[in-house]
Amino acid sequence: MNAASAIGLWPVLFAVFAGAAALLGLGTLLGSRFARRHRERFERAVGVRMRESFLFVDTARLFVLQHLAAAAATLAAWVLSGHWQVALAVALAAGAMPSVLLRRLRKRRIEAFRQQMPDLLMLVAGGLRAGSGLGQALAQATAEIELPARQEIGLLLREQRLGVGLGEALAGLARRMPIEETTLFASALRIGAESGGSMAATLESLAEAMRRKLAIEGKIRALTAQGRLQAWVMGALPGVLAVLLFLVEPVAMRALVDTWQGWVVSATVLALQAAGVAMIRRIVAIDV
């Protein structure tokens, strides 16, 4: 009886072992496919943003470094806090960090280019008044102006040397720098090259209008600086107070991280604070 039971148990054990092996193999296959697709998406998206900002870094190496840093930060948060919720929040924040940093760098680059537009237009207009052609005037302006305008106009000139038409090269510049000033600059050059006329005078009047607009925006930023600072202070105040209260009364504050009610309250506070900061920033954001 015992021998027969043992003989009948072997097929069951074999079936369980085979099923577990199959599940493990399937999980490994799906995991490797997901990891490969995630890496391809990361390298493609980050690579495009980095090329737009003229940052030439190996995306494969950046992928590895980013995930190692995210894993280290998640492990440190778990060890220090002892809560998987905190570790999960740190992991999500670390995963989103490259996109946030690249978006911020891209925004700063566009704003720097926008501040250079009046000087760029005046340099091109000066070259045209000196008797140079449009290509020569752009090359002279590129040699005298600082980054990032030097890189963008230099790329435009290289595209033209490779056979790209002026209209297509200007359209590429407008795509890389999607601001109103670039669109006006590209339109002025395109219309002037096609229909003739005093392109230098057009560029000079456009540069003067851009300079006045930037001056008005600078005054508005100075007048609304207090409101923007107030938004950041109001947004950071609950977090700073929570840290101080954790240091002073850790037992009483444990309810915020040990119970689901505390997590609901924390999430609600974060959502309301984010909404308040967004509303204040929207109020002080004045379009010219």
Structure description:
- With 288 residues, this protein is mostly helical.
- 88% of the residues lie in helices and 0% in strands.
- It has twelve helices and no strands.
- The chain has helices at 2-52, 59-81, 84-129, 134-144, 149-161, 166-176, 180-195, 199-223, 225-248, 250-253, 255-258, 260-284.
- α5 (149-161) runs antiparallel to α6.
- It starts with a helix and ends with a helix.
Brief summary of the model shown:
The chain is mostly helical and 288 residues long. It is built from twelve helices and no strands.
Quick one: overall form?
flat
**Rg, nearest Å:** 29 Å
Q: How can the largest sheet be summarized?
A: none
Number of DSSP-assigned strands: 0
Oligomer description? single chain
Structure annotation, total helices: 12
The CATH topology of the domain at 109-213 corresponds to Receptor-associated Protein
pLDDT < 50 runs, ≥5 residues? none
List keywords for this structure.
mainly alpha; 88% helix; Receptor-associated Protein; flat; 288 residues
How are the SSEs ordered, and which strands pair?
Layout: H1 2-52, H2 59-81, H3 84-129, H4 134-144, H5 149-161, H6 166-176, H7 180-195, H8 199-223, H9 225-248, H10 250-253, H11 255-258, H12 260-284
